[in-house]
Amino acid sequence: MIHEKGSRLLDRMEHRFGRLALPKLLHWIAGFQAVSFALSILSPDFLAWIVYDADLILHGQAWRLVSWIFFPSSLNPLFFLFATMFTLYVSNSLEQEWGGFRVNLYVFCTTICLALVGFLPFTQGIGSLYGWIFFTTMFLAFATLFPDATINLFGIIPVKAKWLAVADVLYLVAIVLQAPTPLVAGVVVTSGLLPYLVSFGPGFSESFRRSSEARVRRHRFEEASRTDDTFHRCESCGATEASHPAREFRVAVDGNEYCDACRKAS
Known about the structure:
The protein is built from ten helices and four strands; from the N terminus they run H-H-H-H-H-H-H-E-E-H-H-E-E-H. The protein has helices at about 5-15, 25-40, 55-60, 65, 75-100, 100-115, 130-145, 160-180, 180-225, 260-265; strands spanning about 150-155, 155-160, 250, 255-260. The strands form two sheets. The chain has a two-stranded antiparallel sheet with strand order 1-2.
């Protein structure tokens, strides 16, 4: 769904910088999340050192610009296991469809957008949502590329990817609306989704334009199909030889044509 011009640009970038891409990048992220999960068990204070915090970044803790990506998706061991397996599944699918370079670019752009927007005023405290926004952006790309892929929630409930994507978006909307400052939360969420919108927005727009044109053409065809090519039409009642084949039509002195039923009635 990436726009044709953007796709050509990415092809050129991949040809030039593709060798720098890290294969299975999301696998690496999932692996570091597992390490963070294990360290959080050994030292509960560990996670406080990797969460995004713009103030602490400005005071020298620069690792927080990226360390928040390694924050565990859940602190419940079972949920964390399912989330990690799902991340690996999404990673394999995106790598197969896009290749390592484009996945790297998508991940880096999402990370940079979220890291930068955190420096805006009044965004303090939003960092705890960064992990959810990040992986929602990854999943939305997967669901757009594979909308009918069936995902077994917790290994039991089969759900199509497109419906899970809708649920994720609704959840983000609920977070924004319930935030103390909805406008700020909306800016943060939109920034995190910006790489997705840039990647797929033009394709959505083009599909909508083509769909609209198809509806217009279909409407015109149906209108033309309803236009009957009849030779006789009664000026009084509108009857034609197609609608009333038993009637006879004559031209009156006023130059208009009338059926025999209307002539008798007059």
